[in-house]
Design a protein that fits this description.
The protein has about 100 residues and is mostly helical. Helices cover about 85% and strands about 0% of the residues. It has one domain.
Length: about 100
């Protein structure tokens, strides 16, 4: 079976169980077991999406921090540089807060 991720494997297995030819009792139990896995599958997908959002937030915060430091130290745009440093630090703190708690 060709799977891109574990989630796609679980979904493919669910569809296979729905359309496979087996005895009535086996088929009903496998369908029920497949449907029981769906909430866990959805929670895993939501968890992965949340982690991607955290990674993107951390990346943007680090980028703002670096740009702010460069602006502030070069004297090109001191006020905006200080604001970017503060924004970057806040984004980094917000992105690491779920990991700490």
């Amino acid at each position: 079976m060709l799977c891109i991720s574990t989630h796609s494997c679980k979904i493919i297995r669910l569809v296979e169980n729905l359309f496979s030819v087996k005895s009535e009792d086996e088929e009903i139990h496998e369908i029920i077991d497949s449907w029981k896995e769906l909430p866990r599958l959805f929670l895993d997908i939501i968890k992965q999406a949340f982690l991607y959002i955290v990674y993107i937030t951390f990346f943007i915060g680090a980028l703002l921090l670096i740009i702010g430091v460069l602006e502030w130290m070069s004297g090109w745009n001191e006020i905006a540089g200080k604001k970017n440093i503060i924004r970057g630090v806040i984004l980094i703190i917000v992105s690491t807060a779920p990991m700490i708690v």
